[in-house]
C-alpha cells in the first residue's frame, strides 16, 4: 500500500505519495497486460514468450490480462483459447478500439499484484528482454526499458522517437533514454496518479509524473525483433496532434504544482544488475 505521508496535495484533498522513492513494495508480484489490436499472427507467440519468461524468473506471483482492443480479426478468439488453457490468464474485450492507454487503464482496474507492465501483443519484444524486464521488478519504483537495436524500426519511427525523447528530456529534465517502452510501474502509484489519457503519449505522461515526484528509476536494455504483418501507426497526424496536446497539458501541470513536482530536480537512478 502507499506509504503514509503528511504532505498534502495542492488542493488539500489527499496525501501525496512518499517522497524520495518511499518504500518499494516487498512483494515482487506482476500483472502483465497484453495489449492487442488485430494481432492474430502474433498473440499466441507473445503469450508463449511470457509463459517461458515467468517460468525462469523468480516472481512471487503473476497474472496475465489480455486486452483485445476492438480487433477485427481472430485476436479475441485466440485470447479466449489461451485463457481457457491457463488459469493465470484473463481476457478483456473492448467492442471498439479505445487506444493503448485504455488497455493500461483496464490493467490498473483489475490488477491484484504490486507491479504492472503493458506488453504489446505483436511479439516485438524478444524473450531475453522480457526476462530482463521481469528480473528487474522491485529494483526501483519504475523500470524503464530502452531499445538497443533501433535499426529494427523504420527510419521515420527512429527520427520521431529520438525527437520526442529529446523534447521530453529538455522540457521536464528527466534525462532518460526512452519514454514509450514497456515500463514496469508500481500499481499503487498508478492508482494514486490516475491515467487520464488513452492517447499515444500516455506512457510518457505517467513516466514523467512519477520521476518528477522523486521516485526511483532503473533503466534496462531491451531488444526488439521483426513482427508479422507490421505497419507502424506511430507517425500519423492524429497521433502527432494527440502527443502535442498531452505535452502542453503536462508542461502546465508539472510547472504549476511545485509542491507535487519540485524544482530543482534530478532523477534518482538505480543501476540494473
Describe it.
With 273 residues, the chain is of the alpha/beta class. It has one domain (29-264): Spore Coat Polysaccharide Biosynthesis Protein SpsA, Chain A. Helix content is 37%, strand content 17%. The protein is built from 8 helices and 8 strands, in the order βαβαβαβαβαβααβαβ. The protein has an 8-stranded mixed beta sheet, with helices on both faces. β7, α8 and β8 form a beta-alpha-beta unit. It is globular. The relative contact order is 0.16.
List keywords for this structure.
disordered N terminus, eight-stranded mixed β-sheet, 273 residues, globular, Spore Coat Polysaccharide Biosynthesis Protein SpsA, Chain A
Question: Summary?
Answer:
This protein has an eight-stranded mixed β-sheet with strand order 3-2-1-4-6-5-7-8, sandwiched between helices. With 273 residues, it is of the alpha/beta class. The model is unreliable at 1-13 (pLDDT under 50).
Topology (elements, then pairings):
Elements: E1 29-36, H1 43-56, E2 61-69, H2 75-84, E3 89-94, H3 100-110, E4 115-120, H4 127-135, E5 142-147, H5 155-172, E6 184-186, H6 187-193, H7 202-212, E7 216-222, H8 237-256, E8 268-269
Helix pairs in contact: 1-4, 7-8
Radius of gyration from the alpha-carbon trace, in angstroms: 18 Å
Fourth-level CATH superfamily:
Spore Coat Polysaccharide Biosynthesis Protein SpsA, Chain A
Average pLDDT confidence is 86
Secondary-structure content class: alpha/beta
Would you tell me which CATH topology applies? Spore Coat Polysaccharide Biosynthesis Protein SpsA, Chain A
Low-pLDDT runs: 1-13
Spatial order of the strands in the main sheet? 3-2-1-4-6-5-7-8
Give me the count of strands: 8
What is the overall number of helices?
8
Shape: globular
CATH architectural designation: Alpha-Beta Complex
Distance between the termini: 26 Å
Top CATH class: Alpha Beta
Content of β-strand: 15-25%
Helix content: 25-40%
Major sheet characteristics: 8 strands, mixed
Order of helices and strands: EHEHEHEHEHEHHEHE
Number of domains: 1
Amino acid at each position: 500500500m502507499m506509504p503514509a505521508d503528511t504532505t498534502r496535495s495542492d488542493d488539500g484533498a489527499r496525501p501525496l505519495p512518499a517522497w524520495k522513492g518511499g518504500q518499494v513494495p516487498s512483494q515482487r508480484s506482476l500483472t502483465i497486460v497484453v495489449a492487442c489490436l488485430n494481432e492474430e499472427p502474433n498473440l499466441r507467440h507473445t503469450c508463449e514468450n511470457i509463459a517461458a519468461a515467468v517460468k525462469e524468473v523468480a516472481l512471487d506471483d503473476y497474472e496475465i490480462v489480455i486486452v483485445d482492443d476492438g480487433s477485427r480479426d481472430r485476436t479475441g478468439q485466440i485470447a479466449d483459447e489461451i485463457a481457457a488453457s491457463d488459469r493465470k490468464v484473463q481476457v478483456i474485450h473492448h467492442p471498439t478500439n479505445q487506444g493503448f492507454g485504455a488497455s493500461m487503464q483496464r490493467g490498473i482496474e483489475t490488477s491484484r499484484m504490486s507491479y504492472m507492465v503493458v506488453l504489446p501483443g505483436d511479439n516485438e519484444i524478444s524473450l531475453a528482454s522480457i526476462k530482463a524486464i521481469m528480473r528487474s521488478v522491485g529494483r526501483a519504483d519504475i523500470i524503464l526499458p530502452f531499445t538497443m537495436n533501433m535499426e529494427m524500426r523504420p527510419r521515420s519511427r527512429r527520427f520521431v522517437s529520438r525527437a520526442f525523447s529529446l523534447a521530453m528530456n529538455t522540457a521536464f529534465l528527466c534525462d532518460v533514454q526512452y519514454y514509450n517502452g514497456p515500463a514496469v510501474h508500481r500499481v499503487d502509484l498508478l492508482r494514486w496518479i490516475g491515467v487520464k489519457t488513452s492517447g499515444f503519449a500516455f506512457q510518457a505522461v505517467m513516466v514523467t509524473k512519477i520521476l518528477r515526484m522523486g521516485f526511483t528509476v532503473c533503466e534496462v536494455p531491451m531488444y526488439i525483433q521483426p513482427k508479422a504483418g507490421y505497419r507502424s501507426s506511430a507517425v500519423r497526424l492524429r497521433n502527432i496532434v494527440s502527443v502535442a496536446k498531452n505535452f502542453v497539458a503536462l508542461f502546465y501541470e508539472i510547472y504549476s504544482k511545485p509542491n507535487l513536482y519540485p524544482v530543482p530536480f534530478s532523477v534518482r537512478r538505480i543501476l540494473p544488475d
